[in-house]
Please model this.
Amino acid sequence: MRRRMEPWFVVLLVLIALGLGYMLVLNPGRMLIPVVVLGAIFLLYKFPPSGFRKRDHRKYAAAARRRVPRPGRQRRASASRYRSK
Model:
């Protein structure tokens, strides 16, 4: 079910678009700084520097990285042993 947009929201979007268009026609250089900043933020989000990436912890032994089974999970065959008769 698709929800209709409220009339005040459509009016607000139209006013924002008119203001941005007027600013772009009147002084296009003024829009350059926000576009560059938003573009840099997007690029840093999409391709983070290597200092902020998750590090791979390969210095630990293979035994320490081995998955430990959860105590609540058991095989069905072994679980059937514990049923009362």
Q: What stands out?
A: The longest helix spans residues 7-26.
